[in-house]
Amino acid sequence: MSSFHIGNTFVNNPTSTVTSHLWIVISNPFDNPEQIAIVNLTSWRDKAVQLNDTSCIVEVGDHEFVRKKSYISYRDARIVFVKEMQGLMHNGLICFRVDCSDEFFDKILDGAENSRFLPLEVRKVLEQQELI
Fold it and tell me: In terms of CATH architecture, what is 9-128?
């Protein structure tokens, strides 16, 4: 059984090639216990507005991790193997944060449904699970 569930959030440790982000599990691991779909939260860029995905703008108060205007980066959504994620957790490279509220999670799924940046493989998983 997966240690991840829908609406979980976690933060990755920064590395030389990856910055730290809040990631959210947006698929149901009970429907596919080997793989999950995840998206991340990215800071809003006033000086590069064209790079922001406006499908799900996140404000302070949407989640305790949020300290400034941000957005869900659907272009960075991906399907990951639960075993790999468990290994990262075991090695201290990611750590869980507070789960999404139902309202915030619904906002994320609404954005996923409307984003033109959501990768097709992620969209298919969400559609198969009837989340969007």
Answer: Roll (2.30)
